[in-house]
Design brief:
Layout (H helix, E strand, L loop, with lengths): L17 E7 L8 E7 L4 E8 L5 H15 L4 E4 L6 H14 L9 E3 L6 H13 L1 H13 L8 H27 L16 H6 L17 E2 L4 E2 L8 H6 L1
Helix pairs in contact: 1-2
Length: 241
């Protein structure tokens, strides 16, 4: 029986309805690990970070907290199962339920099965196609020529000190380019077409709503999270849902 492609539509209510996060281990053989957060409705990349680990819940949480401090908070977060995402899940639910007691006893996070967290998987696929080959060849050359021994602790630490800031700078440039470039038109796509940054910042121009939870005066540490959020979701947004 022929294997036929079955298309499924990804749907989101509007901007900041959902943040999808995911990790990638394609450079783990070099001692490098990647993590990303996506706003699926607009296709806006919230962050792409490289570090020597993507399994530390506190580190992953710091990516999320840095983002919502600058861009406000989504209604729901989404990720693959795993303890590495518990920091984001717990912090997001605590902030939501702290300011809306009606949410007590409910879940503001979606756990997706492996490979079902679609939007970050698409982001990783595009990164592997557009960004990875040239940089991977540089890293492979160092290993193949014997310049870098992944089993030597000192060399690994020096490699991290030199290459992680450089790669992060390149990833930031890639993120900025993707966020400011309109994606190719796709007649099967039900979400808005356009430049991700414009859709994210001006959803009303695309006939969409913004579900972000606005905040004021947020400060935090890894062990302590001091916050003062204010819910500012408009009634029209609630009625739409």
């Amino acid at each position: 029986k022929a294997q036929c492609l079955k298309r499924k539509h990804f749907w989101a209510a509007g901007v900041n309805d959902l943040f999808a996060v995911d990790q990638h281990d394609m450079w783990l053989r070099f001692g490098l690990a990647l993590h990303t957060g996506i706003e699926p409705f607009s296709g806006h990349i919230m962050w792409i970070h490289v570090w020597h680990s993507n399994r530390n819940p506190q580190l992953i949480l710091s990516y999320y907290l840095d983002t919502i401090q600058n861009l406000d908070m989504p209604m729901v977060t989404q990720s693959d199962p795993g303890t590495k995402n518990y920091g984001i899940v717990n912090a997001h639910m605590m902030l939501q339920q702290w300011h809306d007691p009606a949410l007590q006893g409910t879940l503001q996070h979606c756990w997706m099965q492996s490979k079902k967290n679609v939007m970050p998987e698409i982001t990783w696929s595009q990164l592997c196609h557009r960004f990875t080959p040239s940089f991977e060849s540089i890293l492979d050359q160092g290993v193949n020529e014997g310049w870098y021994n992944t089993n030597n602790t000192l060399q690994v630490m020096v490699f991290h000190w030199v290459f992680i800031p450089w790669l992060q700078c390149k990833l930031n440039a890639y993120q900025d380019r993707i966020n400011n470039t309109a994606k190719r038109c796709d007649r099967n796509k039900v979400l808005p077409h356009g430049v991700p940054n414009l859709i994210y910042e001006l959803p009303e121009d695309f006939g969409a709503l913004d579900f972000k939870v606005c905040h004021t005066n947020v400060s935090f540490k890894f062990q302590t999270l001091t916050h003062n959020f204010q819910i500012t979701i408009e009634q029209a947004t609630i009625d739409h849902v």
